[in-house]
């Protein structure tokens, strides 16, 4: 007898089904909910890290540090002249003193706006060709123009942030992998439980001429269906949560946090996770059932 003849009745009962709701479906919904959240976190961190790299690549900050205001002005002028004559420099702009006062006020109070307080001059530099070699040449030229000048790379200031982002990306990837392994383990347990529960039914199918491969297909169909339905429920719920969080984050107006926004490609990847998990679950179920059937015979 062809397995298709008995599939309509048998595969609906091949796994536990109580009150029309299978535990397997809800387990997969929870698995995919957590997986999509972890994947969204990882993708957001990848986007944020890329945005940070683009913003800081080739950006330098020049500080003119001297207590003598007249000397500071002369050094600033000399450095600006040197920077404007460098082919590697695309743009050099001194930071406005009022802006510095606003930045320092939380720490120095009103003293920061006192003309007698020696505040270093800051110059933002954008390089035309971002590279370590170009940065070294710019730093050398700046120090030649003014011995009181210091050159700092903005990427160096935020290196702890970049390191944290890489850690978060690795953690999210590890969590997605662990969830895939946990899903596989759940499928194996469900398949074995189904085999033990329906041992007599499987024996009858064998007597009617069904092969192990045909019986395994019954489990594959059931598990694939449960995984797709449960995965879709969990993925949609997780994507809704991610969308709500993204809307709140966009309202913060932070360039760094805004860089973590998911793109269309990221949403498509998240939407494809239930299908990917269904394929993994189906393959695991097939292997587990075939091995178990050989032992049962």
From TrEMBL:
<keyword id="KW-0472">Membrane</keyword>
<dbReference type="GO" id="GO:0032153">
    <property type="term" value="C:cell division site"/>
</dbReference>
<feature type="transmembrane region" description="Helical">
    <location>
        <begin position="223"/>
        <end position="246"/>
    </location>
</feature>
<feature type="domain" description="ABC3 transporter permease C-terminal">
    <location>
        <begin position="175"/>
        <end position="282"/>
    </location>
</feature>
<keyword id="KW-1133">Transmembrane helix</keyword>
<protein>
    <submittedName>
        <fullName>FtsX-like permease family protein</fullName>
    </submittedName>
</protein>
<keyword id="KW-0812">Transmembrane</keyword>
<dbReference type="Pfam" id="PF02687">
    <property type="entry name" value="FtsX"/>
</dbReference>
<dbReference type="GO" id="GO:0005886">
    <property type="term" value="C:plasma membrane"/>
</dbReference>
<dbReference type="InterPro" id="IPR003838">
    <property type="entry name" value="ABC3_permease_C"/>
</dbReference>
<dbReference type="InterPro" id="IPR004513">
    <property type="entry name" value="FtsX"/>
</dbReference>
<dbReference type="GO" id="GO:0051301">
    <property type="term" value="P:cell division"/>
</dbReference>
<feature type="transmembrane region" description="Helical">
    <location>
        <begin position="23"/>
        <end position="46"/>
    </location>
</feature>
<keyword id="KW-1003">Cell membrane</keyword>
<feature type="transmembrane region" description="Helical">
    <location>
        <begin position="168"/>
        <end position="191"/>
    </location>
</feature>
<feature type="transmembrane region" description="Helical">
    <location>
        <begin position="266"/>
        <end position="289"/>
    </location>
</feature>
